[in-house]
Amino acid sequence: QFNKATQILPDSNEPTDGLLQVDQAERANAITEHRLQAELHLSKDEWSEAIDEYSQALAIDNTLVFATAGKRAAERRLDIKMQLLRLLNDPTLMQSDSELINAKKVLADAYRLDAKSDETAQYIDTLARLISSARVETPILIRSDGATMITILRYRALGAFTETEVSLVPGRYTLTGVRKGYRNVRQDLTLINGEPAPVISIQCTEKI
């Protein structure tokens, strides 16, 4: 109707002012909707979705303080969540001293978060438990044939034996077996604290 009015009254500023008010109202409504949707996503720990809503609000008006602050906070929460999941999905990463130091930092950052959801609280509790046991050794029983020379790579050579026990911290290990006249063998071991310790059997059996 305002567009029609500009044709009826081409010399009047009122239709133009009306169009401007409509545009401002539409922008304000869109911004409000993005803010409400962002807050809804925040309540569900849906950080990526919240970031998207804040970004769309800023695309309308890049001076919005609530959107700038909200996006920054959501990005931080998402970053911490991804770091938590990375460590929880593969606790053996903490076999490395540098990764263990990083895990402690991630845990400290997560503890400082406000309004933690039940899911985030569970992530924090689980990571705290994994960190506390990251250097707790677990005895592993290894069996062989007394002729195969056994080595745990990046740990130490064990030599030949029929049965021995070694204590290892949680992590990933590779055992190798060498015997003259036989094909070499390799066996991977993933050790996670709290899970039953496996009994390893490794020996060279294939003649060459």
Task: Note down, in words, how this protein is organized.
The strands form two sheets. A four-stranded antiparallel beta sheet has the order 3-2-5-6, with no helix packed on it. The model has no long low-confidence stretch (mean pLDDT 90). The radius of gyration is 31 Å and the shape is elongated. It is built from six helices and seven strands. It has helices at 2-8, 14-43, 47-60, 65-89, 97-111, 118-132, and strands at residues 138-143, 149-152, 156-159, 163-168, 171-178, 185-191, 199-201. The chain has 208 residues and is α+β, with helices and mostly antiparallel strands. Helix 2 runs antiparallel to helix 3 (47-60).
- Based on CA inertia axes, which overall geometry fits? elongated
- What fraction, in percent, of the residue positions are helical? 40-55%
Strand arrangement in the largest pleated sheet:
3-2-5-6
Rg computed from alpha carbons, rounded to a whole number of angstroms = 31 Å
* Overall SS class: alpha+beta
**What is the count of helical runs?**
6
Report the portion of residues in β strands. Answer: 15-25%
Order of helices and strands: HHHHHHEEEEEEE
Largest sheet: 4 strands, antiparallel
Topology:
Elements: H1 2-8, H2 14-43, H3 47-60, H4 65-89, H5 97-111, H6 118-132, E1 138-143, E2 149-152, E3 156-159, E4 163-168, E5 171-178, E6 185-191, E7 199-201
Parallel strand pairs: 1-7
Antiparallel strand pairs: 1-4, 2-3, 2-5, 5-6
Helix pairs in contact: 1-2, 2-3, 3-4, 4-5, 4-6, 5-6
Summary tags:
four-stranded antiparallel beta sheet, 18% strand, 6 helices, three-stranded mixed beta sheet, 208 residues, alpha+beta
